[in-house]
Amino acid sequence: MASSTAIRELQRDLEDKANDLSKLQKDIAKNHQVRKKYTVQLGENELVLKELDLLNEGANVYKLIGPVLVKQDLAEANANVRKRIDYISAELKRLDATLQDLEEKQNSKKDAILKLQQRIQSLQAGKAKA
Amino acid sequence: MEEPAKGTVTPFASMFPFDEAKKAVKRVEDAIAEKQKELERHKQFIADNTNLVNLVSRLPDELHHDVMVPFGKAAFFPGRLIHTNELVVLLGEGYYAERTAKQTIEILTRRGKALDSQVESLKANIKDLRAEASFFGSTAAEAAEGLVEIREDYVEKSYTEEQSKSEKVDKKVRVEDDEYAHIMSRLDELEKEELAAEGDNESDEDEHSNTAESDNESGEDECIDIVGSDNESDEDEQTDAAKRGSDIHEYNQTEATFNNFASQTHLETRKAQKQTKVENLSVEALSNKFHHQLDTTDQPNCTGLTVQPVPKDDMSSSRSLTQIKKSVPAEKDLMLPGVKEKLEAASSQLRFDSSKAFTGSIVEHLSNIEKNSQNQTVTSSQTPVRASRPGFDSSKSFTSSIVEHIDNMPTSQEQTATSSQSPNAQPSKPVSRFKMQRR
């Protein structure tokens, strides 16, 4: 019974692939969540930047560090916020790239699984005839 | 469908399984609920923001405020708010700025605007999801009802080619629906005029229907004979297709009549009818005309039917005739002629009415009466042809009635009522409607 062992092997293969696929899907979901978080932060930072731009030169700006408010220079705060926005945008871009990559992988895995299923089906059909 | 070349019929349920559609609906509903929650939260934010704006705007009104200052969770002690115009405002991301009350209010209003725009986008989002949900819901319902999707390739060919005929008719009929609505509105106006003239012509009408009835009786014998003999499917199909062809004729003619309202057009119509008679096909055309006009005169009574398409009506009644013939073969000769008599009386009379509306001259009526009675004999002798294609055509008419059903989804409570009625109940429907109209 060479065909039955072949089928068994194929089924194991299929299981592995299915596990991989579910892992990929989990990754994608996680990626989505992180992305969402970053998008929210980006929005907030942009708001802050807008407000900071509207402040006049002499305004006192504080940064909350732990439990205390630390006085900061307006220009420094402004630069910090800009840097942070740059960082978040870069991070978002990176996440986009990985997401695309993951989705491609997922699609190829799906195709592979489909092919495996078809092969198993054809093998089983052949066995049933014989 | 009998010929595979014509098109494909796919049950809706196979493309969109009921369960799947249901699941999709549920998922979308969940998404909506989530968005709804978010919306609520945003609304809460907006309310907080406006409260804060109010508070901040009131603070600098006084030099100081006497307040109870919270101390721990349970305790308060009396205190006094001074520096009422100095605020430290959180800008976000841990940044604070010292601001005056006025500046703070500016910041808060800007924040409020941002919130508003977010709420707007959320609302739009929810609206989209709602549309999606309703689409899925209707798909699920349709799948559950067992609707089928019919796809046919549209082939442009001449009328002489049998196959393309019915296809063309399908298409034509759909176009006709729009035009029909248009015609209907025009006819409504005419109805009013007609009502004014009704009183004078009542007696004429009665006479006329009598003639029709007596003419009918002679035709009955023939009709029964043909029922038995005419069962081959080829021939049926041919007559069917041809009939549909003549339907188109009829449509166009009626339309022309409606548009021109001249007696001249009437003559044309009659001529054309003769032509079709030569081909032995006028049956369906005439009965169609009758239905057409029945519908027409129906309008003032039941306004709900205004957009009801003719083809649908034709289908159902012709189907029901067919079914009666099938189910009550013994009573055939008793029952059908009775029904037919009524129908034909109606048809002649109704045509009479409408001609009156169009021409408004009594001379025209008289000539029409003769014409009609002639036509009726033909009608009654030919009807059985239609009745003898139950197997083939009932399925056909069924499918096309589905198409109608889809087309008229929004309008038709009335219509669904029609289609859901049992076939045996249907034959009485046109007649009773007619009766209703009579009063």
TrEMBL record, chain A:
Keywords assigned: Chaperone, Coiled coil
Keyword Coiled coil included in the entry's annotation: yes
Chain coiled-coil ranges: 85-119
Database matches in Gene3D superfamilies: 1.10.287.370
Domain of life assignment: Eukaryota
Pfam families listed in its UniProt record: Prefoldin_2
Annotated InterPro entries: PFD_beta-like, Prefoldin
Coiled coil listed as a keyword: yes
Family: Belongs to the prefoldin subunit beta family.
Designated name of the protein: Prefoldin subunit 6
From TrEMBL, chain B:
CDD domains, A to Z: Prefoldin_URI1
InterPro entries linked to this entry: Prefoldin (IPR009053), Prefoldin_subunit_alpha (IPR004127), RNA_pol_II_subunit5-mediator (IPR052255)
Polar residues composition-biased segments: 253-266, 296-306, 369-385
Keyword Cell cycle set for record: no
Cell compartment(s), UniProt: Nucleus
Name of a matching Pfam family: Prefoldin
Chain intervals with Acidic residues compositional bias: 196-207, 214-224
Keyword tags: Coiled coil, Nucleus
GO function terms (MF aspect): chromatin binding; phosphatase inhibitor activity; transcription corepressor activity
Similarity remark: Belongs to the RNA polymerase II subunit 5-mediating protein family.
Protein's UniProt name: RNA polymerase II subunit 5-mediating protein homolog
Organism from which the protein derives: Hevea brasiliensis (Para rubber tree)
Lineage: Eukaryota, Viridiplantae, Streptophyta, Embryophyta, Tracheophyta
